[in-house]
UniProtKB/TrEMBL annotation:
The name this protein goes by in its record: Uncharacterized protein
Domain of life: Bacteria
Signal peptide (UniProt feature, chain positions): 1-28
Keyword entries, A-Z: Signal
Length: 98
């Protein structure tokens, strides 16, 4: 194989590897996604308050995401269990599974 062919092959392989790296999903520590509609959210943004109720018929691992502020911890909530979360800085983002 000529030097130019080896160089081209190496560049193609490096480009493919870089592309695969850039499209790899986030790590397992990242949140799984927005909580389903069976998780009820009552948000009062100007009071920096949200009440979340699990109506999914099963236990759910959930947390409240606050944009530009501190998120709630990821905890397990049983069916029909509800909880409140207040924050000081930032704004309500969403409730996610975790």
């Amino acid at each position: 194989m000529k030097r130019s062919q080896r160089l081209a092959s190496g560049l193609i392989a490096a480009t493919a590897l870089l592309g695969a790296t850039l499209t790899t999903p986030a790590t397992a520590s990242a949140t799984s996604g927005t909580a389903p509609a069976c998780v009820k959210r009552d948000v009062i943004k100007h009071r920096k308050y949200v009440k979340v109720t699990n109506l999914c018929g099963q236990a759910m691992h959930l947390k409240v995401v606050i944009d530009w502020g501190s998120d709630s911890p990821c905890l397990t909530y049983q069916n029909k269990e509800q909880w409140e979360w207040n924050w000081g800085r930032g704004s309500y983002g969403k409730v996610v599974t975790c």
